[in-house]
Amino acid sequence: MSSQTFEGKPKVTVSQIDTSSFLIKTDREKTEQLVFIVEGVSDQQIITALAEKIYLSTNERKQINIVVAGGKYSVAKLANTIKGDFPENSKPVLIVDADANREETLNLLMQILEDKEITTIIPDPEIEVWLSRLNIRSRKELRNMTVHNKVAAAKYMSDLIDNLDIEELKETDNSFRKFYEALTE
């Protein structure tokens, strides 16, 4: 697990499958915690970079935990497995790629999820659509750009997202707007 703290801003904690360290209930953490459960490491890097950019421009003080579930079908299953361990002040948010079939993806999640009230965000066709204004159209293209630029993926992602117009993206993409609202409400 790695974490980064920015001056006066909330900590973004990135977790792999082992969630034990951030699911410990404490009375010291009074601010709301967001627990994003995502499909893979690429999604994790995008969410981390976006959250950092958004929080640098707002006064939000939420702690964010990002858990990699290891695939589309695992996201809802992991949410079910760990839901009883979420701290009282936490809000789980699932982010799953639509893979060009939003309704089927939503139906799949709802069949598996025990708590139908959990926030679900479904970028269509995949989360990389949020980066399309930066000429990134797919996960494969993003990986190729990272390799071509010979930069660590997280650093490349952060540099790329620095050039993203958050306000424009909120206006043009419903799934991103829902993500932004989860971060800032």
What does this structure look like?
There is one protein chain. It contains seven helices and six strands. 42% of the residues lie in helices and 15% in strands. α2 (72-82) runs parallel beside α3 (102-112) and α6 crosses α7. The two termini are 26 Å apart. Strands 1-2-4-3-5-6 form a six-stranded mixed β-sheet. With 185 residues, it is of the alpha/beta class. The protein has helices at residues 41-56, 72-82, 102-112, 139-149, 153-162, 166-172, 174-184; strands at residues 2-4, 12-15, 33-38, 63-68, 90-95, 119-121.
Give the gist of this structure:
By secondary structure, this protein is of the alpha/beta class. It has seven helices and six strands. The chain has a six-stranded mixed beta sheet with strand order 1-2-4-3-5-6.
